[in-house]
Amino acid sequence: MSNNYPNNSNPNGDLPGYNDYAGGNAGESNPFNQGNPYEQAGSYDQSVGNGYGGNNYGAVNNNQYGAPAFPNAPAFNDAPGNAPLLGNGRPGAWKRFLGLFLDSLLILIPAIILVFVIGGQDFMDWVEASSSANPGETPSVPYPTAKMAIANVLTAILWFVYRVFMESNKGGTFGKMAIGARVVSANGQNITPIDSMKRNSWYFLAVIFNFIPTVGAFLMLAVYIAVGVSIGTNSQKQSFTDKLANAYVVNK
Fold it and tell me: Alpha-carbon torsion 49, 50, 56, 59, what sign?
């Protein structure tokens, strides 16, 4: 009888031995060496999309809820301090005006002190002379224009320094804090002192207009209106000086 298992080293003849299964039979493929069908793609041990050992159970999936749906789309980070992408979370013109009003009340105290230190007595003498003068009569004591101008300039500088320091170090003035808002840059951080100067430049413009006789008060009012209108008509709730500084006022 011919030996069907030439690799057989078994002296019992025709019975298959270990080498027949492991090495194949006369160059033919071993029918028992087909690999483990459970190791193919889609099996329970493979990291395929829907396998139990894949992304759905325990493995990291790059498209989970916290990751952006598109690889090139920027992820939205709503952590505190980051500016929202849209204007919905930002205070409007009236809310910001309230913060400005509160800051004005705060600055009013040192402003009054400056006025009385620099020209308080001259101002009181002028008030007394004006009240005692007849209608149409020029007061005997002139108005202390130069001293009042110096006091106004120093008050404006104090206001400016206060706002720049608070915005660049604390994220906003006390008025902003009171209305629950803060000033941030495009990356959600505190703005720099230079950007804060740009952002508050409108105030110096209003102060300069205030020195113009007769029409100065109207021009200063026009600046305030322009700031409010630019905030109300901008989708990002930015005033024209906010744009100049690339700054945003956001709700906390």
Answer: negative
Residues 6 or more apart from 140 whose CB is under 8 A from it?
A: 129, 133
- The helix or strand, by DSSP H or E, that contains position 248, with its residue range, turns out to be strand 247-251
142, 243, 149: which is closest to 201 by C-alpha?
A: 243
End-to-end CA, the chain: 94
Task: Give exposure, 65-85, as e/b (b: 16+ Cβ within 10 Å).
Answer: eeeeeeeeeeeeeeeeeebbe
User: What is the residue whose two structure tokens read 């709503």?
Assistant: 78
- At 141-179, the pLDDT tens digits run 898 989 988 998 899 999 999 999 999 999 999 999 999
Residue carrying the six token digits 């493995």: 59
Count Cβ neighbours within 10 Å for each residue of 27-61 and write b for 16 or more, e otherwise.
eeeeeeeeeeeeeeeeeeeeebeebeebbeeeeee
Q: What is the CA radius of gyration of the chain?
A: 40
Report helix, strand or coil for 203. helix
Torsion angles phi and psi, residue 225, rounded to 5: -65, -40
pTM more than 0.90: no
